Amino acid sequence: MKDRGITVLIVDEKSRRAERVGSLLEGLCERVYYAQSAEDAANVMNRVKAPLVLTDMMAGAEIDGFELIKGLRRQYRAARFVMLASSASIDACKKALWLGAYDFLERPVSRESLEKLFEGLNKSFSLSAPDPIQASPAGQTGSERSFYFEGVKSKSPAMRHIYKVISKAAPTNLSVLIEGESGTGKELTARAIHMNSNRAGNEFRPINCAGLNESLLESELFGHVKGAFTGAATDRKGLFEVGDKGTLFLDEIGDMPMSMQAKLLRVLEDGIIIPVGSNKPVRVDVRVVSATNCDLAKLVEEKKFREDLYFRIKGVSIVLPPLRSRQEDIPDLLYYFLEQACSELGVDTKDISKNCMDILLSYPWPGNIRELRNVVRTTALMSESDVIEPGDVPPEVNSMPKLSSPKPEPAPKLLVGQSLEEIEKQAIESTLEMTEGNREKASRILGIGERTLYRKIKEYGLS
């Protein structure tokens, strides 16, 4: 081990069991703290900011292990979370990975499994950084590991590229323009940029530019003084001032009136706002992330959007693909939203039949992720069986013309004519890529021993 000066937090309702795991950490870390509930864990993290948290599933607790990971990850972005579970609960633990956990360990936890965990962490992260919780995420790895879209790590090459763009753009102060159809996750992307930036500890303020008329939009953005207009009974700060040192998300910026575009441009260039009804300038420091479902370049050509503002907000450009073009992500998204819906609605966990999955994969999802989430929630509530069948899906999904290619990639056809060795090599190579080189995870997914995997890697020259 090269990094032994770290602090570890173990969260478990059973203190003796937690202390046993703690004893196995001797020599692997400097100090171990214990917590018996999510509330205790939050208090400990507030004091010591442990870079590594090992948590039990805590099934039945008011806040279980999954919610603990979900909540603490928002506040302690650089911390790594590992779920501890019995062999019977390993499949359920995959949900923890969807929520951003680094890994999960099977109970009873062994010294060997902990050593492998630390070895993997040391290869990917600097756990003994002076202040790992406050360090800029992009400065830690520069990889897309930190970015999960709706809690699901994407398999789509287009989305993986977007993760890399986010990881590079987030720590800068460059303006970002996010383009994409409605429901593709533009605000989610903006929040990812904010949460992985040096401004994450400050405000993230979204506003829909299409939902307000010009005077209201100006007041919302720049604020107003008492008596500036009818109804202005007191001074009121605008989003630029309230969000100082933070991020302002301008959604549907393509619908912003031309006169407001000129005022926004001046703020972006000078960093100064003037509240409505005032003549006193106020200096602000706000990063602007904009989004649109319009073709802004075309609006510029049509003189409906200012060219100078267009280039000012387009410091970094991100174009989100529609869900129909990244079908490989649909199964994971479906199960993620299904788990979420069943938990929130208080219904039994459900599965999706193969026939139903085929229908959902062939549906073009014109409303993208937003529509998919709503369909899953409705279906989870209305289905009376523990397996969702085609008849449980809303009629509009069944009646909509289907995509010509229900499967994202014609993988079976690519296997025709290949030897078993070639197929095995491809499977190992793809799994290693998906697990980012983590051989222990890859061996578990492939269903083979780690030694066998190591031998195959050498045999096929994949190292």
TrEMBL record:
GO terms for molecular function: ATP binding; sequence-specific DNA binding. Residues 152-381 form the Sigma-54 factor interaction domain. CDD domains: AAA, REC. GO terms for biological process: phosphorelay signal transduction system; regulation of DNA-templated transcription. Pfam families: AAA_lid_14 (PF25601), HTH_8 (PF02954), Response_reg (PF00072), Sigma54_activat (PF00158). Coiled coil: none annotated. Residues 7-122 form the Response regulatory domain. It comes from the Bacteria. The modification 4-aspartylphosphate is found at D56. Residues 387-411 are annotated as: Disordered. Keywords: ATP-binding, Nucleotide-binding, Phosphoprotein, Transcription, Transcription regulation. The keyword Transcription applies. Gene3D superfamilies: 1.10.8.60, 3.40.50.2300, Homeodomain-like, P-loop containing nucleotide triphosphate hydrolases. PANTHER family: TRANSCRIPTIONAL REGULATORY PROTEIN. This is Transcriptional regulatory protein ZraR. The gene is zraR_3.
